[in-house]
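Much of what follows relies on a compact textual record of a protein's fold. The record below shows the convention in full:
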Amino acid sequence: MSEDELFTPRRPLALAMDFVRAGAWGAARAAAAGDGPIAQDIVEWHRLREGLGTPTEVLLFLRRNPDWPGLPYLRRKSEPSFLTASELEVRTFFAGMPPQSAAGALALARVQDAEEARLSAIAGWRSYPMTGALQADYLEAYGEALAPHHAARLDAMLWQGAKISARRMLPLVGDEVRAVAEARLAYADRAGDVAEKFEAVPEVLRSSPGLRHARFEWMLAKGRRDEALALMREASENAAALGEPSAWAGRRRQLVREEMRSGRFAEAYALAAPHHLVDGTAYSDLEWLAGYLSLRLGEPARALGHFERLDANVTSPISKGRAGYWRGRALEAMGDTAGAMAAYTEGGAYQTSFYGLLAAEKAGLPHDPRLAGDETFPSWRDAEFRQLSVFKAAVLLLAADDLDLSERFFTHLSERLDRTGVGQLGDLLMALERPHIQVMLGKRAAQAGLEVPGPYYALHPVAEHVHPVPTELVLAISRRESEFDPVVVSGAGARGLMQLMPGTARDVSRDLGLPYGRDRLLSDPRYNATLGAAYLRGLAERFDGNVVMMAAGYNAGPGRPVRWMERFGDPRKGAIDVVDWIEMIPFNETRNYVMRVAESLPVYRARLGKDPHPVPFSKELVGSTLLPLEQ
C-alpha cells in the first residue's frame, strides 16, 4: 500500500459498507472489489460473523487473516456450519481453538473416536445453552453418557441465566433437583409464589449455592438489604458455598462501598475479604477495598497483604500506580520507611495515573520527561506492520469513514506490537489527524503495560484555540468525555467532543450570544468545545477552580459534589482527606472520572510546554489551579 493510498479521502469500500449494513452481501463484495482483496475480506469478515459462511469459506478466511479482531466470535458463529462438514474440515477448524458452543462440541464429537466423542459431548452438554432441536440431537446420540450430567447442566444454565435451556432440563432431572431449579427460576422471575417454591425444596438443599444466590438477588430487589447481607456473609465461608464467586462479585463490590460510605469499616471488610476470586477486575478491586479498609481499621500489615495481591494481578499504569501508592501507605503505617519509599518509587513510575502521581510525589521523583510526548520512534513508513492484512484493513476502513471499525482494527493490531511499534502506529495516526484513534491505541497499549504518552495523551486541535479556562482542562475533559470522538452520542443523549446535553448547550449558547445548533454539536468540534469550555468556566467560578469538584460537577451535575461535601466534609478545607473523599463518591463512573481528569492535567501541561506541576499534585487536588482566565 503506497503512502498516497494511506491518505486517500474515500475508497470504494465506503459503498460496500453501505451494502453490508443492508445485508446485500453480493453487492457488497462486488463494490469492495474496487479496493482489492483486503476490502473484500472486510465484507467477508462481516458475513462470517453473521454465521453465513460455509466451512470451506471459514477455513480459507482464517488462513488468510489469522490476526484479525473478533475471530473468537466469528468462529463461534460459524460452528453450527461444521455439523455437516467433512471430518478433515472439522478437525482442521477445531485444531485452532476448542469448541465454544453446543453445536461446535457436537460437531467435533461426531468425528472423534468413541471415548473422545463422549468427553466432547459431555463438555458441550454441561457448558452451553442450546435449542430444543440440538438438545434432542445430543440425547439421541449420547443419551446414556449424558444422563449422569443432567443436574450439572441444569445448574450451569441457571447460573448463566439461560432460562429457556434450563426449563427444557426440568423433565430430565429428579424431583429434588427439579424443586431447587423451580425455586431458583421463581426467584429470578420475581414470581409471586417464591415462598411456596422455596418451601417445596427439601431442607437439606435450601442452602445450595445457586438457590442461595437467587434468594440473595431477590432480597436486594425487594429492598430486604439486611437479610441479603446476612446471606452473603453466610455464603462467603468458602468458594464452594458461593458456587460461582464471580456471580456475587458485582453486588459484593457495591455493598462493600455502601458499608464503607456509612462508616461501617469492619462490616465492609468482612464483606470484601472473603470474595474467593482468583483473578480479574473484581478480584483487583476487592483486594484494594480490603486493603483500604484494613488501613482504616488500623491493620496495616493485613492491608499490605491485600495490596501485594492487587499488585500481582494487574498490569495497567492506572492499577500499578494504585498498587504502589497503597503498598507505600501500608508500609509507612507499619513504620517501614525504607520499604514505603521503595513502594512509592515503584508506583511513581506510572505518572500518567492518579495514584502514580501521588506515589511519585511521596517518593520525591521528578516529573517523567517522556510525558511531554515528544519521544521519537523510527518512521512508520518503514514499520513491518504495514505489510499485515489487519493494518491494511484498518486503513481502508478509515478511508471508508467507518471510524468505529477502523479503531477496532488499529487497536487490535497494537496487541501484537512492541513499544516501538505502538509509537510508530501512533505517529501514523497523528499524521492522519486521528486523535480519537490515537487515544484508543494508547489506552489499549497501556492496558498491556506499554505506556506511550504521545498517543495515550494525544493532542486535539481544540488546543490551538483560546478558552476561558486552562487548555489542559479542556483537553482532559474532552479526552475523558469522548476520547476525542467528535460524533459520539451517549445513551443519555450527550453529544460530541465534550459530551454536551442539548439543553445545556442551548443555555450556554444563549449566555454567550451564539446561535444554537443541535447538529453543530456533532459537526463542529470547535463549537462544541466553545460551549463546553464556557460551561467549565461556570464550574470554575462555583468551585474556585478546584479540579476534583469541577470534574465531579461536570460528570454528575454541579449539585452533587455540594451534597457529597455536606455528607463527607469539604476536602479543600481539610475536613476530610481528599483521596478518601474521592473514594467515597457514590457513583463508580464519577469516582473514576475525577481521577482520570485529575491525572491528565500534568500530562497535558507537559504536552503544551507548561510546568506540569505548578503546585504538588496533592495540593492541586485541594487547591485552585483552574480558575477562569482573563479574556
Remarks:
- Residues 588-607 form the longest helix (20 residues).
- The chain has a mean pLDDT of 96.
- The radius of gyration is 28 Å.
- Residues 11-175 form one domain.
